[in-house]
Amino acid sequence: MSLTADVNGLQLFYRDSGSGDPLLLLHGFTGSGDDWKHVFPNQIEGHRAIVPDLRGHGRSTNPGGFFKFADVARDIFALLDRLGIDRVKAIGMSAGANTLLHMATLQPSRVSAMIHVSGTPRFPDQARAIMRTMIEEGRSPEEWAEMRARHHLGDNQIRALWRHAREFADDRDDMNFTAATLFTITARTLIVHGDRDPLYPVEQAVELFRWIPDASLWVVPNGGHGPIFGEQAAAFVAAARTFLKISRPQDLRTT
Does residue 255 have a pLDDT over 80? Predict the structure, then answer.
């Protein structure tokens, strides 16, 4: 079922399907909720999947023209409030994983378990260099066609996403998690990271593993940024299903 919720001054598009424990799926930057169909083509048994388009992505608006991961986390909390969901399991990919770090530190009790894929506690120099190249000039017709297939609110929406990426390069506050902050996370956490990630080096995944109290780490051999698609999807789905089935007594609380 496809729906739209008015939250925090924007219209947030989301899909809500299945039944069971709420499972939040958060896509990567310049992606959309539809990307998860390439990982989970079928419903995840025993889970109610909540799959939003992040602000300014896909079919979700962003009239304020700002993109901070902390604000995205608040958008998702507002959506969960609308749905009457107090506590979730979650999978986040890249931008979605960064959002999950904010969610799990802002309101730790609301995230019972999370799979953190290709995220980071902070933007390293190599990522900032790549972010500064995210300009619309010189984009090929194929690149525009790919973006237009994902984002449905016009070319200005797409230009705004590339602008936000350039803004990330100079932002030192939004993604700036310390060991002390990450230590407050109570969610069971599986960190999934490719050892060939060009944006965030695997050493940052190891830091997250060391700093988040109840964390496990899976380094994907020869994995790039987002090692959960294509040939690597089957192994990830198997690992995710196993991880999500594990629960502690406090994870069984529902509204």
Answer: no
